[in-house]
Amino acid sequence: MPPENNDKKDHTMQNEEITGKINAFLIEEFELEKDQLIPSANLKNDLGIDSLDFVDIIVIIEKNFGFKVKGEDMINVKTLQDFYDYVSARAKTE
Fold first, then answer.
1. Predicted model pTM
2. What kind of architecture, by CATH, is found in domain 3-93?
3. Over 60: is that where the pLDDT of 5 sits?
4. Residue 83 buriedness (CB in 10 A; 0-12 / 13-18 / 19+)
């Protein structure tokens, strides 16, 4: 198998691992149901995550993924997919 295919597979595995970790803490910490966690779900309107919850999420992200989250970075995070993408991009650059 050419190296670029292995890199793509590793990249996908990392994304799946990140998605799994995020879903696990959303289920555990915010008592969400697994079937609610669809990529298009709006964090605020569909999942009921408010500004105080975002503070908790930031602490969890910093603890589990090892990078500092800036509040202004979260302004454009509206859907669960936005959230996955943000954490994935930051986790890979740290």
1. 0.82
2. Orthogonal Bundle (1.10)
3. no
4. buried
